[in-house]
Structures are given as structure tokens and as C-alpha cells.
Write a structure and sequence with these properties.
Blueprint: H1 24-35, H2 43-51, H3 55-79, H4 86-94, H5 96-129, H6 133-152, H7 159-180, H8 198-207, H9 214-217, H10 227-257, H11 266-275, H12 278-310, H13 323-341, H14 347-372, H15 376-393, H16 400-420
Length: about 425
């Protein structure tokens, strides 16, 4: 989930009483908020469809990888507190061109993720009201346009509101998992790997979208009064909470739903077992609220990233929406949603695009970390980079997305260089 936490970054002297400073509990809440999102409503079902019960191995592996990400991004945030997030981290280790590619890949992932989130919300609504792909696409398009209309008016959800939305998600997941536990059956775990062991890698690549978020809050390390002491506690709390939620939902999805786990609405199925017929309505309401909040956060993240890419010397003003950016999100979002409604792409295919883009960004950050960090953080970055490369290998055709971004960046830089070499043209560095 792309959170707006990084927008709150303010300079504070250690030991001062600046009200902007983060407490341990508030910091842990922001970290958890950056990691959890509406993807949790869909991805357990997609992972189960890809690998069956063996998808639990993908969850466990990614939770271990998440711990490495936490260590690396925390170290990067402490070393480069005002570097500008992933762009600054990649620039420090791999140079400005790689940083530019990483920034545009991250922005593209944010934009591509918005229609996916809208489709998640729409699938839960049609699970309640009925309807097929076209109905889901229509509702998803409506959700996207509503959020864009609000964004055009300058409406921006605060970090506190985003945390409330995450709190709703946590409560819903806990009720679903705990309430449906009595319906779990051991027989649902066999056969354990019906699609073979390589399918676990495909499931991991799909689930990666649920583990993006550590980079969003790394710059907040300067907001702690005592980073060396608080960060360990904050990261530990965030890892513990997300591990419990992710594993609990993954185990319940397989153990309770069995062959029905391969669905776009696994949480609705669990809630139906937990609280009866009201479960589907509860899941639909929660999905719509989370969709609106998350897409708004996506738009905020995209606005900031554009500001850093186009005007890196200025502080981005997220309250000023670029009309062309909203038009681009609307155009690409409606295109993806229409393709889904017409049956041209599957949910897994739509998830694969932002996943491949974010994996490419994470690879750049991990490689950069290997070059600029020292000690345990560097030792964590090396295996993390290898793991990301392995998952990229399972992305298949979706690798074309980060490749196209890289080609576009190279072509753009070449065009700018040629223009600057033209007599009479002055270019700023």
C-alpha cells in the first residue's frame, strides 16, 4: 500500500519537544499502515489459485524477506534522511540515471496499482449484489472516477485518516480469521502442491504487492527522538503485527475455504463463516471504504513522485494536482478496467504489472544499499537483492513494464542531451 506518511516528514532536532516527533507507538502505526492495504482482500485468493496450500510457503518466505527490507530501508533512511525516498537511495548507490528510472518505475507502479485496488473493491460489491466481469468493471470505473473527482477538488486524506482505514482492515481480518477458525478442515491442505513447487515462486511474485511499503516510511527515521532505540522497537512491532495478520489470513483462507480459496473475495468467504450472511455485506462495505482511501493515497504518492522527478530542487506540493496526471491515471485506469471487463486480462495479470514495477525499484534500492551501506544492513541487502531477482524471474511478460520505463528514460535523457548540444540552447544541470 502506498501511504502518504512520507509527506509528513519534518526536520526535528534530537531531544527537542517538537510535536512533529514520532512516538514509538505512532511510528509503529505508520509502518503497519504503509504495509497493509486493500491488496490483502484479494492476494490470498490469487496466491491460493497459483500454488494451492503450498502458497503458505510463499507467505513465510516473503515475511522473512520483509524483515530484510525493513533493516535495509531503515539504514538507508538514517544515512540519507533527506534523500527523497527511493530516488535518493538509488542515486546514492547507482547514479542519477538509475535513480530517474527507479523514480518513474515507482510512479508507474503507483498509477498501475490504482485500477487494481478499484477492482478489488468492485469484486466485493458484486459478491454482495451479484453480477459478472462487466458489472465489476463498471463499479471499479465508478470508484476510480469518484476518487479522481475528489482529488481534482484538492481533497486529501490525512495520515490519521489512512491509519483509521488500516485499523478497519485489521479489525475485519481479525474477526474473519478468529470467527471462521472453527470451520477449518485438515483435508483442505491436501494435495499440498497441486500445481508443482515452481508455482510457489509465482505465488510469491503475486504476493509481493502486499510487502511494498517499507520504503515509504524510511525517511521518517529523523522524526524519532531517539532513533537508535526506537527504531528497533518500531520495526519489531510492525513485523510482529503484519506477520500475525498475513499468516493468520493465509492459513484461514486455505484451511477454511479449501478448494474455494481461489477466489477474488476470500475475506468475504471467511466473514460469511464467521458472522453469517452479514459477512458478505460487511466485507463489501469495508472494501469500498478501503478502496477510496487507498486510491486517494495512491494519487497523493503519484503527485509527490512527479514533483520530485520534474522539479527535484523544489519541495513537492501535494495539494496542487497536475491535471495531466489525473488525466493519465484516469486514462490508464479505465483502460485496464475495460480490458478486465471484456475478459482480455485476468486479475493476476493486472496485479503482475505494478508488482514487476515495484520489484524493479526494490532491486535498484537493494543493489544501491550493497554499495553504500556497511555492516548488518549491507549483509541483509545482498540476499534481499537476490530474492528480488528471483521473483522478477517469475513475473514473465510483466517484465516488459519496467523494461519500457527504462527505455523511455534512456530515450528521454538522450533527447535532452542532444537538445542541450544544439547551438544557442542553454540547459540547466
Amino acid at each position: 500500500m502506498i501511504e502518504t506518511a512520507s509527506r509528513q516528514r519534518q526536520t526535528a532536532r534530537p531531544g527537542s519537544h517538537n510535536p512533529a516527533q514520532l512516538t514509538t507507538s505512532r511510528g509503529a502505526a505508520l509502518y503497519i499502515g504503509a504495509l497493509l492495504g486493500p491488496g490483502l482482500l484479494l492476494l490470498p485468493g490469487l496466491a491460493a489459485a497459483a500454488a494451492g496450500p503450498a502458497s503458505i510457503l510463499a507467505w513465510v518466505a516473503l515475511l522473512a524477506l520483509s524483515g530484510l527490507f525493513a533493516m535495509v530501508f531503515t539504514a538507508l533512511g538514517r544515512r540519507y534522511p533527506s534523500a527523497g525516498g527511493v530516488i535518493g537511495y538509488v542515486a546514492a548507490g547507482l547514479g542519477p540515471r538509475a535513480a530517474l528510472a527507479a523514480g518513474w518505475a515507482f510512479l508507474s507502479g503507483v498509477v498501475a496499482g490504482a485500477p487494481v485496488v478499484c477492482l478489488i473493491g468492485a469484486s466485493y460489491v458484486t459478491g454482495l449484489t451479484g453480477g459478472g466481469r462487466l458489472a465489476q468493471a463498471g463499479i471499479a470505473a465508478l470508484l476510480l472516477l469518484v476518487v479522481l473527482a475528489l482529488a481534482a477538488r484538492g481533497l486529501r486524506a490525512s495520515a490519521a485518516a489512512q491509519l483509521v482505514l488500516v485499523g478497519v482492515l485489521i479489525v475485519v481480518v481479525v474477526v474473519a480469521v478468529a470467527g471462521s477458525a472453527g470451520s477449518a478442515r485438515a483435508a483442505n491442505w491436501t494435495p499440498f502442491a497441486p500445481h508443482g513447487w515452481l508455482a510457489v515462486g509465482h505465488a510469491a511474485a503475486t504476493l509481493m504487492l502486499s510487502f511494498v511499503g517499507w520504503e515509504a516510511v524510511a525517511p521518517l527515521t529523523t522524526r524519532f527522538a531517539d532513533p537508535s532505540r526506537q527504531l528497533a522497537r518500531v520495526v519489531g512491532i510492525a513485523l510482529a503485527v503484519t506477520t500475525a495478520l498475513y499468516l493468520g489470513l493465509a492459513v484461514a483462507t486455505i484451511g477454511v475455504l479449501g478448494s474455494g480459496a481461489a477466489t477474488m473475495v476470500p475475506l468475504a468467504g471467511l466473514l460469511s463463516r464467521a458472522i453469517g450472511p452479514a459477512g458478505t455485506a460487511t466485507a463489501a462495505a469495508a472494501a469500498v471504504v478501503l478502496t477510496l482511501g487507498a486510491v486517494n493515497a495512491y494519487i497523493n504518492g503519484a503527485t509527490e513522485m512527479v514533483g520530485r522527478l520534474i522539479r527535484p530542487a523544489r519541495v513537492p506540493d501535494s495539494s496542487r494536482r497536475a491535471p495531466w496526471l489525473l488525466a493519465a491515471i484516469a486514462g490508464s485506469g479505465l483502460l485496464f478496467i475495460s480490458a478486465y471487463g471484456l475478459g482480455l486480462v485476468s486479475p493476476a495479470s493486472l496485479v503482475a504489472i505494478p508488482t514487476a514495477l515495484f520489484l524493479a525499484v526494490y532491486l535498484g534500492c537493494m543493489v544501491a544499499a550493497v554499495r553504500v551501506l556497511r555492516g548488518p544492513a549491507r549483509r541483509a541487502a545482498a540476499p534481499a537483492a537476490v530474492a528480488v531477482m528471483v521473483m522478477l524471474g517469475f513475473c514473465g511478460w510483466a517484465l516488459a513494464a519496467p523494461a519500457l520505463v527504462a527505455v523511455a528514460v534512456i530515450a528521454g535523457r538522450f533527447a535532452v542531451t542532444r537538445k542541450c548540444q544544439t547551438p544557442g540552447v542553454t540547459c540547466r544541470s
